[in-house]
Amino acid sequence: xxRQEATNLSNIRPDHQIRYKLASEIIKKKSLNKLVxxxxxxxxxxxYILADFVEEIxxxxxxxxxxxxxxxxxxxxxxxxxxxxxxxxxxxNSDLIVCFEFLEHIKEDEKLIKLFSEFSKNLLISxxxxxxxxxxxxPINPFHFRHYTPEQLERLLNKYGYYVQNWxxxxxxxxxxxxxxTDGKFIIAYCEKK
Length: 194
Prior knowledge:
Helix content is about 30%, strand content about 25%.
């Protein structure tokens, strides 16, 4: 299984929770608290974390079983969980799109970033770092189409008007804390459109 499956936050991996805590800090600092979209929300624990900081959050997930779990275990009154293909979802303008560990699962990565750019000026996105965790180095993750170097990710984001304001990274192992920069197994970019 590629996603987190725990039905309470205490059993969700700390590195995954930390990314959403970063999102909550950005939401507060930048006053992006009206509508946030959690793209590829899985079972919804991230939307649940962010719900305390926003008026409304929409969690989008293509897997129907994951959405059932999200609705059962991670629901709050200001969360809407939607079972949909991301490309078929009817987006509206949002303050922020959060896209954690989802881009590498999408074959049409350019189409995804273009779609995001049409509906939000702010994007927080993470993906495995190709420089540290090469996609084709065993064990190969069968759910991933690619990983990105920081330069590749930044070039893709720039193509659709997003400019990285801050880079963060996470190393693997037991040290899940966020670091500034791009030298971790996972890279995280907070972007704004100019």
